[in-house]
Amino acid sequence: MNLEADLKSLFTEAPAGLAGLVLAGVGLADRYAVRPGPIGDVFVAFNDRGVTAVDLADSAEAFERRHVSIHGRPAVRVDDLPDRLARQVDTAIQEGRPGRLPVDLSDLTEFQQAVLRRAATIPKGEVRPYGWIAKEIGRPRAVRAVGSALAQNPVPVIIPCHRVVRSDGTLGKYSLGADENKRVLLQMEGIDVDGLTSLAARGVRFIGSDTTHIFCHPTCRNARRITDAHRVEFHSEADAEEAGYRACQVCRPAQAA
Amino acid sequence: MTADPLAARLAKDLDGAFPDVVRQMSNGLYSGALRMLGNARDAEEIAQDALVRAYRALQEYPEDRIRDLRLRGWLWTIAANLCRNRLRSRARRGERSLEGMDPSDDGSGPEGEALSGETRSELATLLLHLPWEVRTAIVLKHVVGLSYAEISEALDRPSGTVRSDVSRGLARLREALEEER
């Protein structure tokens, strides 16, 4: 009998999750867990700074692969989010805006962060065109770049990139599963997507009221209050201004131009 | 001092190299703590805690100091302390040192191992009956596979003392195994 060899055989493998928990413990990995979402369960990843990713909970393997490639560090599955964070996440998902939930966008470029922070301010049930974001962040010509920043939004639903659409009224790309999910989410918020598209197809970009002489984006809560009798349609900001209308201060249709 | 290539990488890029430290050291830390304490959950917590503490310490160390580290010995100074503290707090709570232990709860060993599960679990139990000084020395030497120099660093005991602890431990285990036969 060889006692030394027998002792050596007492060497054993550490539990599979150990390495991940260590890396998450020192901030070299994010943690993630499943939460209910508006169109099915979602994976929600987070670290000490806030939420880093939201995605449809289909394949954990694919999610983890994507996470490493976007964030440069692994995501480690845990049983659930910490209680407080879970509550904040559920509220943010329900409201479709971050609210009090900390969101960590630090892996993104400053431009991407600016785009997403602006998109986060669009109210539920309203949409804005890509060009509006570009103007608002002071990069009026960067419309395409705005589009790709939104298409790569790591925290869809919480930052409501689904509320940014093309100025021709078509919906454009979406980062949570299929592009079609964008329509589903907008309809869940009460938006008449087909109505919006046909309005845009007629070239209508803004709606004004002939009593207030204020013009808005068509889905702005102020525009939706205008009755048919007082409703005026405009094809451009220039048209509206020429007619003596001024821009709504809530939806800021031309502020940054 | 012989340069450890992993320590050299850590010195240059702590965040980039640390995942490799975790990969290379987890099994040893876990096995060692498991055989010193006899409890899988304690072992898991200690291995995790030791690595997290190591990272935080490394964040504060200057590059030169990291480059000169003998990583395994150094990590085990942290882990051996944690094991000793765990043992003490268990004693304070009135648990006997072997209570709650389950030396066989890890099931699997390396492939092609010589021992049956029963014999391994018997040997694991015998280890837990050795005095602490002897147990730590023999576990680090023969289960984890540290050198005497590394063990001397980890346990802060002279190398000669560690050697004699290890041979005393082996002798005791042989005796105990003889008796049971």
- Kindly report the average pLDDT value of chain B: 88
Structural class by sheet pairing and helices of chain B: mainly alpha
Strand element count of chain B: 0
N-to-C series of helices and strands of chain A: HHEEEHEHHEHHEHHEEHEHE
Shape of chain B: globular
User: Average pLDDT across residues of chain A?
Assistant: 93
Task: Using a beta-carbon cutoff below 8 angstroms, give the protein chain pair with the largest interface and the number of residues from each chain.
Answer: A-B, 23 and 42 residues
SSE order of chain B, as H and E?
A: HHHHHHHHH
Strand content of chain B: under 5%
| Low-pLDDT residue spans of chain B | 105-113
Name the beta content range of chain A: 15-25%
How does the major sheet of chain A shape up?
A: 4 strands, mixed
Q: How many domains make up the 3D coordinates of chain B?
A: 1
Please provide a written account of the structure.
The complex is a heterodimer of chains A (257) and B (181). Chain A has helices at residues 3-8, 18-25, 60-71, 83-95, 110-119, 130-136, 143-151, 180-188, 193-201, 221-224, 237-242; strands spanning 30-35, 42-47, 50-56, 75-77, 128-129, 164-165, 206-209, 214-216, 231-234, 246-247. Chain A has 257 residues and is an alpha/beta fold. Chain B has 181 residues and is mainly alpha-helical. Chain B has helices at 5-12, 14-37, 40-60, 63-67, 71-92, 117-128, 132-144, 148-155, 159-180. Chain A binds chain B through residues 1-15, 18-19, 21-23, 25-26, 28, and chain B through 15, 18-19, 22-23, 26-31, 34-35, 40, 44, 47-48, 51-52, 55-56, 106, 108-110, 113-115, 119-120, 123-124, 127, 138, 142-145, 170, 173-174, 177.
